[in-house]
Amino acid sequence: TTVFLALNARSGPLARIELRRGLLAALDLAQLARTAQLREVVPAGSLIPPGLIGHDPTRLPAGARDSSQRTDRLVLRAALWNDGSERLARLADALVAMLAARGTRLELVTDGGEAFYGVLAAGEADLALCRWTAEYPDGDAFAHGLFDPDFGLLRHFASPDLARRIAAARGEGDPLARDLAFREFEEHLERGALLVPIFHEPF
Question: What are the φ/ψ torsions at residue 99 (nearest 5 degrees)?
Fold first, then answer.
């Protein structure tokens, strides 16, 4: 299971990559992980958790970023997953406060699980705080489950190019080639400032 922040690169203000990069640079990911009880979770350097095909153990949690980075007067629609978990509630509060201190105001467009899925299905959020659990031990459970162009949770957040990359990775029958393909998928997420992992939870 991975908890992460995803950014909408297809529509809205975050379609501009410089704004996505600035927003991520304003985040103190270590502080967010501490807010979520660091002793009970593992800070994440990748979307795909350890033990799954596609996990790259050399991808370490992001260090301190530019805490002085500001995104003044930016107002973003935020879909925040809420399943009643105290840990996620604290994380959401910390995220809202952290971005507000850097000049970005979040307008919450969800108030529960069903609303969360509906907002994402309609492409009506600029960013989403998500929790995702793999149903099988393969990076495809994250890549396809989140970004499938027809049914993926975040299908309205990324470009068709990402879907093509995922389709190519899914078609790899050789385990080593498949592992490499999903590692490249992770690199694409990072280069495009599309998503930042925060922590892994025990299954």
Answer: -70, -35
